[in-house]
Amino acid sequence: MDSFSSQSSSSPSSQMSAEDFMDQLKVQLAQAYAEEFLETVRGKCFDKCITKPGSSLSGGESSCISRCVDRYIEATGIISRALFNSQR
């Protein structure tokens, strides 16, 4: 049972406030975004950097993965700041 369905089956006196609901929704959206981001980075960086999958990473592969992840994090930060600044 997820957090939304558990709320609908509770008594009216124990329902969460709109502010609590929005806070919970923000947390769930942030978690979903983080999971999607990690999956995207994992897939893109793996495809770009790992040419011959094996039992361990070579030095070049390790460096490539590190740079790739750093670029994705930096790009996401730039996009997020631009979006948040444009909404003000």
TrEMBL record:
Pfam hit, one: zf-Tim10_DDP
UniProt-listed Gene3D superfamilies: Mitochondrial import inner membrane translocase subunit tim13 like domains
Domain of life: Eukaryota
InterPro entries listed in its UniProt record: Tim10-like, Tim10-like_dom_sf
GO biological process terms, semicolon-separated: protein insertion into mitochondrial inner membrane; protein transport
Keywords: Chaperone, Disulfide bond, Membrane, Metal-binding, Mitochondrion, Mitochondrion inner membrane, Protein transport, Translocation, Transport, Zinc
Recorded topology in the membrane: Peripheral membrane protein
GO function terms (MF aspect): metal ion binding
The protein's role, per its UniProt record: Mitochondrial intermembrane chaperone that participates in the import and insertion of some multi-pass transmembrane proteins into the mitochondrial inner membrane. Also required for the transfer of beta-barrel precursors from the TOM complex to the sorting and assembly machinery (SAM complex) of the outer membrane. Acts as a chaperone-like protein that protects the hydrophobic precursors from aggregation and guide them through the mitochondrial intermembrane space.
Protein name: Mitochondrial import inner membrane translocase subunit
Species of origin: Deinandra increscens subsp. villosa
